[in-house]
Design a protein that fits this description.
Number of strands: 11
Mean pLDDT: 96
Low-confidence stretches: none
Largest sheet: 7 strands, mixed
Helix content: under 10%
Structural class: mainly beta
Distance between the termini: 37 Å
Shape: elongated
Oligomer: single chain
Length: about 120
């Protein structure tokens, strides 16, 4: 199982992008889903997460601009990014805590990353 991301690209400051992420294989259940990002020379940081019940958590730097949501029927998580700034430029990674089988443990899975570039 791997997570497949889409929606990255290049945009001017003030613009918007929407990222999507979903697992490629068979999943029994998906718990918390998250978006992280890593800018050149910086550590990977949490951008936002959402649990199965819909409770969300955001980094202070994106509050009011980004919205995380999910479709539990499709095991898909989205990140709507509005009013993008140059400092949002990074590779964005999807993370999901998944249980592959009813009798298995939950494990963390990562996407391959998608580049978001914001030009000023």
């Amino acid at each position: 199982v791997r997570l497949v991301e889409s929606g990255g690209g290049s945009v001017q400051a003030g613009g918007s992008l929407r990222l999507s992420c979903a697992p490629s294989g068979t999943i029994f259940s998906v718990n918390t889903m998250s978006w992280y990002r890593q800018a050149p020379g910086k550590q990977r940081e949490l951008v936002a997460d959402i649990n199965r019940g819909g409770s969300t958590n955001y980094a202070d730097s994106v509050k009011g601009r980004f919205t995380i949501s999910r479709d539990n029927a499709k095991n898909t998580v989205y990140l709507q990014m509005n009013n993008l700034k140059s400092e949002d430029t990074a590779v964005y990674y999807c993370n999901a805590r998944c249980r592959l089988r009813w009798y298995g443990n939950e494990d963390d899975y990562w996407g391959q990353g998608t580049q978001v570039t914001v030009s000023s």
